[in-house]
């Protein structure tokens, strides 16, 4: 590598060269050198190598997706590339019994070294660490020491495994969305996180290796598409016919908290399923309070003394009650806490209580709709109100006692609704592209786990239990549900584009309600995943890769920049500003200044993939204050693959911050639904 003005940069400075699927490199530069390089001809963007963070038995049944779905011989030829923390290959979820050799299109490899072998289920595995620096607990191979990568892989494409549970909890048949798919593993996440340089290297390889779907359950904080490694990688994947499914992020419930939002890949929110875990706390006065956790420890109903953390400060370490009430590490007085249950303000990992010798812990401050987690000792996480009642009991009783019961489960009749933690829109970069795209189960999901990783993420826990399955929550769990469903659609429609598959997933999603999920479409997009219906959507909104280039032109990218991105002679047409409105997206979003009158036209084209001869009628739900007209309001198709265009005109004024509507094309057999959201600019 030689560049004028960079003569001192030798091969040792080059971390990666991306050339299999797109062009670029990761290199060590000073700030001044980076600025100089950014101004050079042919350089699209220069951005720092930042760190990103990692963002099931019952869930597929709840979605109405049976174990034995219609499949074809093509099913076992579909390959899902999972970019995460690796995989635990010995898990029953990844046994290759019944699988033939990898499909001939597969060009990947298995870089497993001595402690890792691939099989006919896990057909490829690579690992990436650009700076070559590893923590002591990191395993230098695709093997997963964290559990996260194993969990998401098994949600997307894990085998059918009966009698899976976390020590009896969530007992049932664990399975992925598309168990006949193959898995290719790209380990990019380590104990410290996941870097942009490694993410891009993995995308480069996955595209060239021949994967069909990419699943990536992580995100960062960038607000610019081309300084975001996931958006860049997903763009090149899309141009190569590969759909990328990404997680929306775990920064909800506030609006505008999304971490993945580019229009060429999926952003998936986390919804609940109809199974709820709860952990009861019984006091010495026979009152019982219900919290949440994954508690497999059995105190055998024995009552123990209970103490408030704020009354047990470790004064020798300089802590007072204001500090010790949160029960952080070494803030509690072991002499006062040992052998007792300790009440703490706020949730923590339980290590402080464990170090102080506590028998169990009750934490207070839980918000509604929180996901459950495991702790290294008996624990329950309660609402502030219930925590206050326990605090009052402690202060009004000479010898207060309590016990924590093992976790139980019950049906949640209100499901599905969006998790509190799930990141919300609107899209921070393109205000008129609705994100997230749709929701999928991401709360209390049981799936495969790495037995060397404690389910509570506390090392001392491994002495008590090493488990092959775990129950966790996050948009990380929602994303592979959609990846598995996308793989299923790909097996039935191998020629469909990434946009066609996304359209099928979105237009068949089950509508959700703003009453149960604050943020409305910015919480759930088109609605909750319906994988069975998505395989046969009736109509699709397709998008050619060139349409995204027009979209980027509308975002203000220059022709020079555009050509450097695309690697060809693309140019922006005159007057292309505003092309974002007419990207053929399966949803409609319109941002408008407050108090302004609205008048806007969207243009869309649908392709018939349902019945050869059919007539669709437009059904519009219109909220107060708005007029929504579709022209033409009837679409008559005479053949499969035929395309017809229409416009949607929205006029009126906003009566509140977010206004929801919808358009359904209905031919009596198929209902092709698109959400419409009009909102006041933030």
UniProtKB/TrEMBL annotation:
Residues 75-527 form the Peptidase S8/S53 domain. The active site is at 84 (charge relay system), 148 (charge relay system), 476 (charge relay system). Keywords: Hydrolase, Protease, Secreted, Serine protease, Signal. GO terms for molecular function: serine-type endopeptidase activity. Its main location: secreted. GO terms for cellular component: extracellular region. Residues 11-55 form the Inhibitor I9 domain. The keyword Protease applies. This is Subtilisin-like protease fibronectin type-III domain-containing protein. It comes from Fagus sylvatica.
């Amino acid at each position: 590598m030689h560049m004028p003005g960079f003569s001192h940069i030798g091969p040792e400075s080059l971390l990666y060269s991306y050339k299999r699927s797109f062009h670029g490199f990761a290199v060590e530069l000073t700030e001044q050198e980076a600025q100089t390089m950014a101004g050079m001809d042919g350089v699209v963007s220069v951005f720092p190598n930042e760190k990103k963070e990692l963002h099931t038995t019952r869930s597929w049944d709840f979605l109405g997706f049976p174990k034995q779905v219609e499949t074809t011989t093509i099913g076992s030829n579909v390959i899902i590339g999972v970019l995460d923390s690796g995989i635990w290959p010995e898990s029953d979820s990844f046994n290759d019994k019944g699988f033939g050799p990898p499909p001939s299109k597969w060009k990947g490899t298995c870089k497993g070294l001595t402690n890792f072998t691939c099989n006919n289920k896990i057909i490829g595995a690579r690992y990436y660490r650009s700076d070559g620096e590893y923590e002591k607990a990191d395993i230098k191979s695709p093997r997963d020491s964290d559990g996260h990568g194993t969990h998401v892989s098994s949600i997307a494409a894990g085998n059918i495994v009966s009698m899976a549970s976390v020590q009896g909890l969530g007992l049932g048949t664990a399975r992925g969305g598309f168990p006949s798919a193959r898995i290719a593993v790209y380990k990019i996440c380590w104990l410290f996180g996941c870097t942009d340089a490694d993410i891009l290297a993995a995308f480069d390889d996955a595209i060239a290796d021949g994967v069909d779907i990419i699943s990536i359950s992580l995100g960062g904080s960038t607000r610019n598409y081309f300084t975001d490694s996931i958006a860049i990688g997903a763009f090149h994947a899309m141009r190569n016919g590969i759909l990328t499914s990404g997680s929306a992020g775990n920064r909800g419930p506030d609006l505008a908290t999304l971490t993945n939002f580019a229009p060429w890949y999926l952003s998936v929110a986390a919804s609940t399923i109809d199974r709820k875990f709860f952990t009861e706390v019984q006091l010495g006065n026979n009152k019982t309070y219900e919290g949440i956790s994954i508690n497999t420890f059995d105190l055998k109903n024995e009552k123990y003394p209970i103490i408030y953390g704020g009354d047990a400060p470790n004064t020798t370490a300089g802590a007072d009650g204001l500090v010790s009430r949160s029960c952080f590490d070494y803030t509690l007085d072991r002499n006062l806490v040992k052998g007792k249950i300790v009440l703490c303000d706020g949730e923590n990992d339980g290590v402080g209580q464990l170090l102080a010798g506590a028998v169990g812990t009750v934490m207070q401050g839980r918000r509604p709709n929180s996901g459950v987690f495991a702790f290294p000792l008996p624990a329950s996480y309660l609402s502030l109100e219930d925590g206050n009642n326990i605090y009052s009991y402690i202060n009004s009783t000479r010898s207060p006692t309590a016990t924590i019961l093992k976790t139980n489960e019950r049906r949640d009749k209100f499901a599905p609704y969006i998790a509190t933690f799930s990141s919300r829109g609107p899209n921070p970069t393109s205000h008129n592209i609705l994100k997230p795209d749709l929701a999928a189960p991401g709360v209390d999901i049981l799936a495969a786990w790495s037995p060397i990783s404690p389910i509570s993420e506390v090392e001392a826990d491994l002495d008590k239990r090493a488990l092959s399955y775990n129950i966790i929550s996050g948009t990380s769990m929602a994303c592979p549900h959609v990846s598995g469903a996308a793989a299923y659609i790909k097996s039935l429609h191998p020629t469909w584009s990434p946009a066609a598959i996304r359209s099928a997933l979105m237009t068949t999603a089950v509508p959700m309600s703003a009453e149960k999920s604050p943020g409305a479409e910015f919480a759930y997009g088109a609605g909750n995943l319906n994988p069975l219906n998505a395989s046969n959507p009736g109509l699709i909104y397709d998008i050619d890769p060139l349409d995204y280039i027009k979209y980027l032109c509308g975002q203000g990218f220059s022709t020079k920049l555009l050509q450097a991105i695309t690697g060809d002679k693309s140019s922006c047409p005159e007057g292309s500003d505003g092309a974002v409105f007419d990207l053929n997206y399966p949803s409609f979003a319109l941002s408008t200044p407050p108090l302004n009158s609205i008048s806007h036209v969207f243009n869309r084209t649908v392709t018939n993939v349902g019945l050869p001869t059919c007539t669709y009628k437009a059904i519009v739900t219109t909220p107060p204050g708005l007029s929504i007209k579709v022209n033409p309001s009837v679409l008559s198709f005479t053949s499969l693959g035929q395309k017809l265009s229409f416009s949607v005109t929205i006029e009126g004024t906003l009566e509140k911050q977010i206004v929801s509507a919808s358009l359904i094309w209905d031919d009596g057999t198929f209902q092709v639904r698109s959400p419409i959201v009009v909102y006041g600019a933030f």
